[in-house]
Amino acid sequence: MEENRFQSCWQTVAPPEFPKLSGDCNADAVIVGGGLCGLLCAYELQRRGVRDIVILEAGRVLHGTTARTTAKITSQHGLIYSSLEKGMGTKAAWQYAKANEEAVSRFAQIVQTEKIDCDFVPCDAYVFSCTPEGAQRVREEAETARRLSIDASFTDKCGELPFPVQGAVRFSGQARFHPMKFACRLAEILRERGVKIYENTPAVALDDNMVLTGAGRVYGKNVLICSHYPFTNLRGFYFARIVQNRSYLAALKGAPELSGMYLDCEEAGLSFRSARVDGEPVLLLGWGSHKTGHETDVSHYGKLEEEAQKLYPGCSVESRWSAQDCMTNDHIPIIGRYRQFGDRVYLATGFNKWGMTGSMAAAGILSDLILSGKSEVADVFSPGRSDFRLQAGKFFQEAADTAANFFHGYTEIPKGGVAQLKNDEGGIVEFEGAKIGAYRDTDGGLHGVKTVCTHMRCPLKWNPEEKTWDCPCHGSRFDADGNILENPAFLPLDKRGPD
Ligand SMILES: Cc1cc2nc3c(=O)[nH]c(=O)nc-3n(C[C@H](O)[C@H](O)[C@H](O)COP(=O)(O)OP(=O)(O)OC[C@H]3O[C@@H](n4cnc5c(N)ncnc54)[C@H](O)[C@@H]3O)c2cc1C
Ligand code: FES
């Protein structure tokens, strides 16, 4: 099959390799997940004196969402502050602001202290709107942010953008970087300082403070779940509190270099930032937002490239890719004690596409909770907060959506027999009287699987753009051979069809 069609522009930097776990062990802290969040938690805990730290990674480190992000380092998360202050009060908005402002500063400190060469560039961040109604909302955001001591201001000009705006809120003193240069070096630093990192070691269950893997059991005095979607999610109903949402990115050559970073205030709006890839300037254009396993009939890449040509005629697309992140009902990450497992199990997830600062904030908060039992900014992120009560409508909407996915999936009529699949075509087909999922590759080879998600048995949808099987319930993704691409599932699909 064709490989790497949708690699991000950051993935030319290869992460270091680590061994697989073999046998049981103990640690002061066991961290599940080797993405930015897991690595930063390990870094922070070790810096504050925790000695034995083990990181368990299901696949290879830094092959998850961190490798496919836009990598804006900012406390400006859309128009979060005005809605947060209205919905949860000034104290909650202040805690959110403080955690994320400190996270921006911490990146600068770590880059400097550890001398990490990662194209770190201080810059301003803007959320703009092209409508008068939107301009009113960004003005309100600027006022709220200023009240929360953020260096924010309103402007009606974003002269670097290829279209006029009605208004924008600017946060000064933010930053952008190359996430893989930063995180790969961080992983090496952790190894040099004695943190044990095990790859190809998925955590499959948690028994009190014992993390079970196929290669051994790891007992942790503290267990931190940083696996993007929590690998264990039944307790606490996390499967109903988190959805995975996808967006699309292109790295453009022949577009101008921007000094600022920009984001439309509308949910699926455009995102802009400049970057250097192999020393060459590119402009990263982002667009789109949909639940994983939905909109499978939309040409997202086609639309993104159309938009790129409209905005920057004659530019070329150097690379294009998609990524997904965990979204919470109230748009606030979930960071804190995973109470359903007792006092020493912690969770960091639901970064709502702001997991650079979200991961850094999680590292600070979880270290505070582990080492001193308290954190002055933890309440707003608490897993035990009342998002379920406040967002009951969304909760039941998700439950109804899941039921509909089951119904449509199990009643989907096959598009014909396996023989009818053309080259580079996939979908649900009939094979020996049963329904299977199949993809015929560009050389005519057939890849057949059972299209039942190994997480909670939701029927999978064929994604014709990326040639993957995507779960419309909680966002697991599998390649055409059934190998896992994105969790929460950690078991591959069963093979089906002719050998
Ligand atoms: C399109 C897009 C653009 C974004 N842009 C920005 C941005 O500009 N700024 C910003 O702040 N944020 C941004 N984000 C969000 C940010 O990239 C993510 O929130 C962040 O990278 C998540 O890091 P993570 O470590 O939690 O997850 P990941 O990087 O996905 O790492 C999780 C790791 O856990 C491992 N794992 C999973 N299950 C198990 C298991 N059972 N056992 C062991 N290991 C396991 C996975 O294999 C993976 O390696 C963006 C997100 C998207 C989708
Ligand atoms: S991801 Fe939960 S059923 Fe598929």
TrEMBL record:
<dbReference type="Pfam" id="PF01266">
    <property type="entry name" value="DAO"/>
</dbReference>
<dbReference type="InterPro" id="IPR036188">
    <property type="entry name" value="FAD/NAD-bd_sf"/>
</dbReference>
<protein>
    <submittedName>
        <fullName>Cytochrome b6-f complex iron-sulfur subunit</fullName>
    </submittedName>
</protein>
<dbReference type="GO" id="GO:0005737">
    <property type="term" value="C:cytoplasm"/>
</dbReference>
<dbReference type="GO" id="GO:0046872">
    <property type="term" value="F:metal ion binding"/>
</dbReference>
<dbReference type="Pfam" id="PF00355">
    <property type="entry name" value="Rieske"/>
</dbReference>
<dbReference type="GO" id="GO:0004497">
    <property type="term" value="F:monooxygenase activity"/>
</dbReference>
<dbReference type="GO" id="GO:0016020">
    <property type="term" value="C:membrane"/>
</dbReference>
<dbReference type="InterPro" id="IPR006076">
    <property type="entry name" value="FAD-dep_OxRdtase"/>
</dbReference>
<keyword id="KW-0001">2Fe-2S</keyword>
<dbReference type="GO" id="GO:0051537">
    <property type="term" value="F:2 iron, 2 sulfur cluster binding"/>
</dbReference>
<dbReference type="GO" id="GO:0016705">
    <property type="term" value="F:oxidoreductase activity, acting on paired donors, with incorporation or reduction of molecular oxygen"/>
</dbReference>
<keyword id="KW-1015">Disulfide bond</keyword>
<keyword id="KW-0411">Iron-sulfur</keyword>
<feature type="domain" description="Rieske">
    <location>
        <begin position="413"/>
        <end position="499"/>
    </location>
</feature>
<keyword id="KW-0479">Metal-binding</keyword>
<dbReference type="InterPro" id="IPR017941">
    <property type="entry name" value="Rieske_2Fe-2S"/>
</dbReference>
<dbReference type="InterPro" id="IPR036922">
    <property type="entry name" value="Rieske_2Fe-2S_sf"/>
</dbReference>
<keyword id="KW-0408">Iron</keyword>
<dbReference type="InterPro" id="IPR005805">
    <property type="entry name" value="Rieske_Fe-S_prot_C"/>
</dbReference>
